[in-house]
Hints:
This protein is an all-alpha fold. It contains 10 helices and no strands. The chain has helices at residues 19-26, 41-47, 51-66, 72-85, 89-102, 106-114, 126-140, 147-156, 159-182, 188-198. Helix 1 runs antiparallel to helix 2. The longest helix has 24 residues, at 159-182. The protein is globular and about 50 Å long. 34% of the residues are buried.
Amino acid sequence: MQNNRIRLITREMAPAELEAIYERADSLDLDGELPGPTLFADQVRALAHHPALLQSLTKVYEAFAESLSVERKLLELGVLICSRVNACDYCLQHHAPLAQAAGLSKIQLRRIESGDWREQRNLWSNEEWLVILYAEQLTREPYKITNDFFAELRNCFDDRQIVDMTMRFALCSAWNKFNDALRLNTELAFQHAFAELMVAD
Length: 201
C-alpha cells in the first residue's frame, strides 16, 4: 500500500453537498461487486479539498456515462493503454476489472499489463487495434499523429466518437499523473479483482 502524500478528506469531514458523491465512492472500499465508471474513493477524498472541482469532474464522467458514443470495451481499452504507457498502477488496477466486465479477455488484459500488446496483433480486432494505436500515440506524442492514421481512424469512428475518445484518453493521462504524484491507494475490491485477472488459468 502506498502512503498518500496529502490529507484525505473523510466523509465525516466533507461538506454536506458532497454526501451523494461520497456514498458512491465509499462503496468501493467493500470487497464486493465492482461499480461502473466513476471517480474512485481516494480520488474523491483528495479532490474534496476543492468541492466545486470534485462536483464538476463528477458531472463530466456522468456525461460520458449518460451518452456513450463509443463501446464501453473500447473506452476501457484506451484507458488501460494510456495508464500502462504512463505506468499508473492505480488506474491499471481499477480499469482492468472494468475492462473485463466490458468484454476484454484475460489474455488481452495480461498483454497490456506486461506491456507487449504489440507482440500479438491477432489478439485485437481492427477497431481495438486503432484504439490502441490512438491511445498510445495520444499519450506519448500527440503532435506526431499523422493525417494518414487519422484517416484510418475516421474509417471506423465518426467525429463525435473521436472527440469522446480523445477527451476520455487525455483525461486519463491527467488522472494518471494526479494519482501517482499524490500516491493514492487502490480500494480493496479492485486490488483483489486485478490480482485474480493476472493469475494464469
